[in-house]
Amino acid sequence: MERLQTPEDRFFQDLMGGCAEVRQAFSRHVGMNGHRLQTLMRLWRNGETSHSDLRHTLAIDGASVTRLIKEFEAEGLVSRRIDPEDNRYTLAGLTPRGERTAAGLARAHQDYQVRLLDGVTAEERETVLRVLGRLRANVARIPSEQE
Known about the structure:
Blueprint: H1 7-30, H2 34-46, E1 49-50, H3 51-58, H4 62-74, E2 78-82, E3 90-94, H5 96-116, H6 122-141
Antiparallel strand pairs: 1-3, 2-3
């Protein structure tokens, strides 16, 4: 028996699907997978960052972070060094070439966003932002099963 989709199901399916579609489309647009793109942009925004912080922020395992950073290092985009305050950690930072690459990606992302919003009025944007704000507030009020 097929379950009928409720209006709530459709709303969240379209919301989440739309977000994923937009994110994946930009990755395809610039020819870089999502984790590579997120890592470069995170380093560009935050500066030198530990592998551990990248692992937590990007929600990927340590081996994947190390592999990404080593790939970027081989491409001349990232340099690594031991954290002088705690030698258990490795810090990764963008090289000048990495800075230029990330800045170019940021400009491409800005242009991409402008193109995505073509035909969407300021009023429509504000409506979406109000709805998202209300959803976030509702999430904060709903107790988790663990509480």
